Each structure stands twice: as C-alpha cells, then as structure tokens.
UniProtKB/TrEMBL annotation, chain A:
Enzyme Commission number, as recorded: 2.4.1.-
The name this protein goes by in its record: Alpha-1,3-glucosyltransferase
Compartment(s) of residence: Endoplasmic reticulum membrane
Sample GO molecular function, one term: dolichyl pyrophosphate Glc1Man9GlcNAc2 alpha-1,3-glucosyltransferase activity
Gene name per UniProt: ALG8
Coiled-coil regions listed: none
InterPro entries in the cross-refs: Glyco_trans_ALG6/ALG8
UniProtKB/TrEMBL annotation, chain B:
Name of the featured protein: Alpha-1,3-glucosyltransferase
Keyword Transmembrane helix: yes
Signal peptide as annotated in the record: none
Protein family according to the UniProt entry: Belongs to the ALG6/ALG8 glucosyltransferase family.
Enzyme Commission code(s) on record: 2.4.1.-
Keywords assigned: Endoplasmic reticulum, Glycosyltransferase, Membrane, Transferase, Transmembrane, Transmembrane helix
Amino acid sequence: MWIKLVGSVRCRSNGGAHNCRGYWQLVFGFGARGDSPQMPSHPHLATSEWTLDYPPFFAWFEYILSHVAKYFDQEMLNVRNLNYSSSRTLLFQRFSVIFMDVLFVYAVHECCKCIDGKKVGKELTEKPKFILSVLLLWNFGLLIVDHIHFQYNGFLFGLMLLSIARLFQKRHMEGAFLFAVLLHFKHIYLYVAPAYGVYLLRSYCFTANKPDGSIRWNSFSFVRVISLGLVVFLVSALSLGPFLALNQLPQVFSRLFPFKRGLCHAYWAPNFWALYNALDKVLSVIGLKLKFLDPNNIPKASMTSGLVQQFQHTVLPSVTPLATLICTLIAILPSIFCLWFKPQGPRGFLRCLTLCALSSFMFGWHVHEKAILLAVLPMSLLSVQKAGDASIFLILTTTGHYSLFPLLFTAPELPIKILLMLLFTIYSISSLKTLFRKEKPLFNWMETFYLLGLGPLEVCCEFVFPFTSWKVKYPFLPLLLTSVYCAVGITYAWFKLYVSVLIDPPVGKTKKQ
Amino acid sequence: MNRNFEFRKPNSNLKMFLGAGKPPMFGDYEAQRHWQEITFNLPVKQWYFNSSDNNLQYWGLDYPPLTAYHSLLCAYVAKFINPDWIALHTSRGYESQAHKLFMRTTVLIADLLIYIPAVVLYCCCLKDISTKKKIANALCILLYPGLILIDYGHFQYNSVSLGFALWGVLGVSCDWDLLGSLAFCLAINYKQMELYHSLPFFCFLLGKCFKKGLKGKGFVLLVKLACTVVASFVLCWLPFFTEREQTLQVLRRLFPVDRGLFEDKVANIWCSFNVFLKIRDILPRHIQLIMSFCFTFLSLLPACIKLILQPSSKGFKFTLVSCALSFFLFSFQVHEKSILLVSLPVCLVLSEIPFMSTWFLLVSTFSLLPLLLKDELLMPSVVTTMAFFIACVTSFSIFEKTSEEELRLKSFSISVRKYLPCFTFLSRMIQYLFLISVITMVLLTLMTVTLDPPQKLPDLFSVLVCFVSCLNFLFFLVYFNIIIMWDSKSGRNQKKIT
C-alpha cells in the first residue's frame, strides 16, 4: 500500500517520470507481442509503482507508442524490466513528446486565427496574435512538465485548445467531439466539462435569443441535442466499451478516481486546502503553546512529514471527498449561471471555462499542482484581448509557474528552471505591458510587491535553507512556504477573475461574436 | 518517515539552456579538472614540469600561465564546495552530477563576465544600424554553434580568450589603443593560439603609428604600446621569469614543435594534401616547418601590408579573418578547434556581409563534425545549427543580399570586366556554390551518422568532411583577400555617389 501511494508522489525526477511512461508502454508490450492488453491485474504489474491511472484512450495511445518503441529499443518493452532506462529509450520518449506536440502547434495556430485584438502597432512582435502564440508555445509550465518532468500534456492541451477554437469558429459539433475524445484521454478535463455542457446547451441547442439576451425557449432544437448526445455516447462507447464487456469497469473507475489518496499529496498544490492546512497547523501550534490542546490527542503523523494517506486535521474540521465536491460545485455555480443567463458567445464560454478550471483547482480533492496549467492556457487567450484579463493572467501564470518549481528538484535542473522561468515571465510581462500601454498600469503596488517577493522566496528555499539547521528538523518547510505563498496569489487571481466575470455587462451591450 | 529528497541517478540529457547535452568523456573535461587539481596542490614551480606528482603525459598543462591562474581560481571554489573534486591523485576521472554542474557553471560565469559583455558592447558600437538590427546581430553572434558546442559540450574555455581578443578589437577600433593591446596580451597569455590574431593587431597599430607620423605622436604611441605589451607579459609570466629553465619549459609545453605537421584530421591544406601524397611521412620535420612557415606568411602578407599602409577599422576586421584563416590552413600543428579563431572575426563582420558570413559559420561548424560526433553531440549540434541559421536568415534576410554590391565584390568585378566583358555572372555563381556546399554538407552529415565506413578506409567520412571543409575554406580565403585588396578608395567614392 505504502509503495503504491509513494509511487504517485515519486513521479518527480527525470528518471522517475521516464520510468512512469516507459512502464505503461511495457504493459502494452504485451500487445506488441500479440497478447491482448488488459488493465493491470497481472501479479508482476501490481508490484510496480506506476500503474495505469488514465482513461482508456490514453492506454491505447501508449499501445501505439509501444509498437513504435520496439524499433528503438526492444528491451524497454519487457515487463520485467522495471526502472529500465537507456539512452535510446530516452531518445524515443522525448521524440514522442516532441512529435505529439505538432498537434499543439496546430491548435495554437487555429486559436490565433480567432483572435482579432487591437492593432497596436505594425510591428510583428506587438501584434496580439504573435504574443499569444509565444505565450502558448513557450509556456514555461508546459515546457517543464512535458519535456523535463515528462508527460504528454502538449497534445492534450492541443486537443482542448482546438476544441475551443472550433467553438469560436462556430463548428460546435467538432468542438464537442474533440472535447469528448479529450475527456477519455485524461479525465482531469472533467474540471471544465460543466462549462462545455452549459455552453453547448445554451448557445447551440437554443438557436436564437430574445433581443435583450435572455433565453428563447421555443428555439430549442431537438436535433442538435440528440446529435450532441450521440457524439458523446459514441466516443464513450468506443472508449469504455471493451472494459464494460470484460466487466472491469469498477476497477477502471477505482484507478481513475483514487479517493484513498488524501486531500493533498506530499507537496500541497497551492489551492484553498493548502491555506486550510496551513491554518490548521498554525492553530495547532498556537493551541499547543497556549495549552488549549492536549498533546496526546494529536495524531502522530502530521501532514508535513510527507506521508500520503488519509488522516484528520487537528483543530479545524476534517475534509472529506464529498465536502470538496460540494465546495467545488458551489464555487462553479455562479459562473455557470452567468454563462446561462448572460451568454456572451465564445468569449463568455472561455471565461467560464477558466473559472471552472480554477475553481476545481481551488477546491478539488487530491489536486496536483500541474492542474494549474488547465487554467493558465485558456486564460492566455483572454489575456491578449483585455487589459484587466491580462493583469489577472500575469499574476496567475507567474505564481502558477513558480509553484511548479518543486517538480524539478535536482541540482542540475536548478539553473534551467530559473532561467526559463525568468525568460517567460519577463517576456510575458513586457509584451503585455507594451500591448496595453495606453490603458492604466497592469499591476498595483500590492501585486507588484507580491510578484517581486517570489525572488527572495526562491533564494531562501533553494539556496539558504539547505545550509541551515532547520533542514533536518523541518525538511518540508520550503515546500510549505512555496505552497502557501502561491496559494495566496492564485486565490487572489481567482477572486479577481470572478468579480470581473460577475460585473461584466450583459450581451445586449457588448456584441462579441 | 521523511519524504526523501534523493534523486535517482539521472539518465537524461541535461540541456543547459542552449548548451550541450551528453556527459563529456575523459577528454578535455578531465583535462580542465586535472589542471585545477595540479594548480591547487602543487607549487607554481612544478606546474609545467614532469614529476611524480605531475605526470605531463596525463593532460599536462599546455596553455600559458593565465589559464593556470584561472584553473587555480576555479580550484579554490571547488575546494569550498567539495574537496574530493581536486584531491591530488585520487580525483582522477572524477565525474558526478554536481561536479558537472560546477564545471559548466564556471564556463557560464566566464562567458557572462568576459565574452558576452564584449559582444553586446561591440554590437552597440556598430554604426549606421538600427537598434533592432544591433540586437539581432548580438543574438546571432551569441548563437554561433561552434563556440557553444566546444565550450559547453567538448569542454574548454575558449570564450575567455576570444572574449579578451574581442575586447582588444573593440579597444583598438575605438582608438583606446593601450587598453586594446592590454586586452589582447591577456588573450595571448590565456591561449597561445591567439597568436593567429597577433599579426593584424601589430600591423594595424603600426599603421596607426605611421599615420600619426613617426617623428611625433606616432613614435610616442609606439613606445607606449611596446611598454604596455612588455609590462603585461611580465606580469603574467612573473613566477616563471625567475629561472631560465622555467621559461624554457613553459615555452616547450606551449609550442610542441616535435609533434608534426598535423595531428588527427583537421580541415587544413596539409591534411587534405596528405590524402593524395603522404607529405607528413615523406618530408623531414624541419622541411615541413619551413614549408608551412613560408606558405602561411606568403598568403597573409598582402593583407597585412595593405593594413599597415591604410589602417582602417573595417580593413582591420577583414585582415583578422584572412590572417587567421591563412594560419589555420597552412600552419603547423593546427587543431580543428582553431577554426573558432577564424569564426570570431567573421562574426564581427556579420552585419556587413551577412550572406557570406553565415555561410562561413555554417561550414566552420560542419568542419567540427568528427569532433562533435566523438563527444556524442550530434543532436545539440543539429539543433543549434538550425537555430543559428534561422536566426540569421530572419534577422538579416541573407538570401536577398546576394548582389555584387552586397557581397563587396563590385570593384573586383569591374576590374575583371575590363579584361573579360562577359564576367557578369559572379553573384549567381556564388549562389550556386552556396547551394552545392550546403547540399554536400547535409549529405555528408547524413552519411557519417547513418552509414558505416568501409573496412579498408575506417576514417573515410572524417577525411571527406575535412576535405570538403578545406575546399570551402580555400574559397573563403580567396574571397576575403579579394575584398581586402579591392576595398580601395574607389569603393568609398562609389558609396558617396550612390
């Protein structure tokens, strides 16, 4: 049990993440040699740390990759070769990511076509399309998560951006199809499914609006609803069908939604629960000092020791998966209502999507810090069109990217991550400032101070802390500080975005189609 | 149970920014580490001598004292971080992640302190160019693949000596002659190969003195320069001037004249000629020396004389190129890395003749191919070359600048047309040559990587690479000499008219 749980935490070093991917390919090495692929119930497979926890389409994708992999290095497909790594394996893995990124590049190209921002200058580098393409293609978070930490998010985000672009271009069926496929690649996109559902229902199934923007009930089109439903059903059938036939559906779902994993994993994602945990810790320390709490009542394992399991909070009430679900639903409801009652076309949908992603990140169960990319990438599209969105985007993206730093913790990766982060941050801030130079400044003094504080924080955590005596007593302290500091920023950005969505004028006044 | 922060032994390639990937082998990396070990643990008097503690056969010091001082400085830092890295005898072949990071950081710091500011300042001082073009120019120079790959991948500190040389060029071009010559002396004292650049410096400064008049200011300048040069040499070599034997031994290490005309495969004339006629084995050692000496000086004499008679900043830069190229092609014991000494001046004229400079820089990177393949740097070299090429094409629109005027060949072709009126196809010929050259380079690269050489000729591909590069370099030698000789006053008059 301990090994399996640690497995999810240990997807960190380069070697580790590579082995993660490599392992899934070797599971489907079975397929490459003629056996039928199955979910891991084989005794050997259960002993590895890296068991499949993505939906079936991703599994088929790894299957296809394994067929290509055998031309690079046959050994990596041997089931018994756990933790196998060679330079050819590495080459193959990295090339596969780069190759799949082609889809991402195409999606960015389509998104740029949908932007028609202001014409600030004749310079290529000042056009919104150019800035957007750089912000998306060179997104620091995506770069390090995909190419260093190692995952295939590039092409998945490509699918998402492509489906958004299709919705912008009024090709709703394609957009819906792409999103359904995406959902079966990685179920984390369930975070934004409500936005899709409500938008398609409201703006596609109801074909017309009344002049003041409210819903016209008699324009409901059954054909459209049924065709959408059919698309989603067919995709789901294709994906889950085989496992339904094999009676493995409960096992699949238990792998996809592992609620036994705990509210946060060893490094707290910078969301609301990080602040909650920090508050709980602070209160318990104060309580102990002031003798309000009995030391014997406090559970021995505390959250900061790095163990991932379910346990209780000390002072504040404990959080159950159901509670997080309710919090998430409450958090996304206002944006959904906005989308329903004040539809503003694709732009409104995009803002609702970002809000859904961000709210789910804030209140979800066992959220991984990589999930912040789900909010950052769609927000990039909004940032090049309005100054207000640009400032929220910059705060969100800078803190979000900084919160990804603990993913790369080896010494050689330190200069790389700092350099890349600086490059991206400096570019994004300067280009957006230039784009919106005619409007009021993007940041007020508080925000500037907060963003500048990230520098000293990094210096303290990575350079100063390892040489102090606290390293032995409180090894988790830098991660805690990073979590909490970023959580403040992300909560602030979330709040600001919500306010701007809620107080935006309805569609009668703004016509952005 | 605490969360363990240990990292697994990374099997991945670490691309440091634009830099190199795979771990360096027991090559120059180990040499640099060994020099830190020696300079830290042994007294100065033993650095260049063979002893039980210092085996000169195992990467003995063969660069001038400034390199040794730099190694000593790095060694002090290394001792502070981890003394095992430079422990005498026991640290041979030491390789670890942290050590690699340390060594790469030393190169990066050297770059940041010396080379990069020189490049940036040089581009700022360029005249008649918009700011955007200056930035693009600086970017292209910094992206030059050869230097990045050799310094970060193969592992050396060329950026220090090249940076000092660049400071020298800057100083001398902006009329800060004393500072410029001091910087250049530091460059020579860091790597003796910088002597390739010494003749143009000498001729340019001499020409300036003549222009100022040898009876007045010129003479004063000459004396001041001489004093600066002597003082800087004395300062650098101070610990080695105490005994005659010390000085001689250092000189023996710096100039190994008993090593032969060339070693390994290098893209110069002698190696290419050796393919047809084994001159290395036929001729005796002293004849080889005399022959290479004569050829080298004959090929660079015209440009140098012109520089003395008409010292100009532009002429100085082109003469740097042609002299360094002459030395590379004809000199004794040339290593393929010496092409960097030619590439630096070519980078400086990138803004004036973008098409030819880009072509040259691509060929120079290609000529390093056998070395890079040995270090398993194929992927980084392909990526950096493509990045450099794309940067140059977009910044300078090189394919639109291929007319005779742009290639500075107008006065030459006018002179030729006096005898051959039909000589109008020069620029088209050059474009075709470029195409042929690039196709040959790409094909050879593909062949070297994918095919195995035949049993009887195991070095076939490296020799082919050297041969093709040599032909290209000969063409460039002729081209640059033409530019220098025909860049006369008539050229300047034409500019004024148009």
